[in-house]
Amino acid sequence: MISSRRQRPPRHRVLALLIAVGVAVGLGGCVSPSEGAGVSAGAVIPTALPPLASSPTPRPTLRPTFTPATPRPSATHTPAPMPTAEPSPATVGDPFTIGGIRLANGDAPLTLTYPSSWDGDRHTVAHIDLLVSDPEGESLALFDAIGTWLGEHKIFVYPDTTSGRPVLSIHDGTYSGVPLEAEPLRLLIEGSFHNPYPADKIEERLIRLRGERFTLEQDGNVAEFEVVDGVRMDAATTVAFRDRPGDISTLVEPLERPEDTFLVLICSTRQPDEPQEIFPARIVLALSLVR
């Protein structure tokens, strides 16, 4: 249920002004343990994105309704592949450079550090390749082919057109027993894959995550970001946004400093009232530069 709420290959490619040339993007990337690969979650949204507005106008937004969870059956089904659509590549510009970090530069590896506990523990992922969306869909195909680069680290980057901000789609879960890039973050937010916290507790933890710091490092530049909002997209909301992925920023509070903000998208395991899929839901975080 949803309710209303206010408001590649690794090559140098950037995402500022969108044009009508498309790139296939899928919201899937989740792999069933029955496939022998473990559980993985890439949280990319497919899209037919409209042109990027230079000054997005705030509007009423959608947000999941959270319902208490009860003991859940084990997830046994592989998530159905999500449809693909066509967001566009873009040209060089400042919208995807924040605090000296160039999120649309596929030639400059990124180091990401984020909280992994409420006691100050932090998890670092180094040497991340940024796979920036491209007209041929090659970056997405590589992002989804985890088995071909397991042991390396890759994040898919595409634009949210409503806000004009970059979205970092990050794998979580495990693959062949190997924890993926955002798995410690997912565990912090929702607990174990087979026995996650109830949805209302997950919402509480997302609220608690506000103010927590993420650190990005690239080419000698270091920038601190803090979580300003976060929301779990339940299964119904996730399905609804397959055709409007450029609007996922409308799920979080209106961005006070959009020029300093980017979004993070990861997968979320199922709640008892959701489809029997491995990762039918998503989590969206908004992070703003600490000045």
Radius of gyration: 17 Å
Broad structural category: alpha+beta
pLDDT averaged residue by residue: 77
Quaternary state reads single chain
User: How many beta-strand segments?
Assistant: 15
Unreliable segments (pLDDT under 50, ≥5 consecutive)? 1-29, 31-41, 45-92
Beta percentage is 25-35%
Major beta-sheet overview: 8 strands, mixed, barrel
Distance between the termini: 37 Å
Total domain modules: 1
Could you give the order of strands across the largest sheet?
A: 6-7-8-9-14-15-13-12
Shape: globular
Approximately how much helix is present in the residues? 10-25%
H-E string: EEEEEEEHHEEEEHHEEHEE
Number of helices: 5
How would you describe this protein?
With 291 residues, this protein is an alpha+beta fold. It has one domain (2-289). 12% of the residues lie in helices and 30% in strands. The termini are far apart.
Give the topology.
Elements: E1 2-5, E2 40-41, E3 61-64, E4 97-98, E5 101-102, E6 110-115, E7 122-132, H1 138-144, H2 146-149, E8 153-160, E9 165-169, E10 172-175, E11 178-179, H3 183-190, H4 199-209, E12 213-218, E13 221-233, H5 235-240, E14 261-268, E15 281-289
Parallel strand pairs: 7-8, 9-14
Antiparallel strand pairs: 1-3, 2-10, 4-5, 6-7, 6-12, 8-9, 10-11, 12-13, 13-15, 14-15
Summarize this entry quickly.
This protein has 291 residues and is of the alpha+beta class.
Properties at a glance:
single chain, 291 residues, alpha+beta, three-stranded antiparallel β-sheet, 5 helices, 15 strands, 12% helix, globular, disordered N terminus
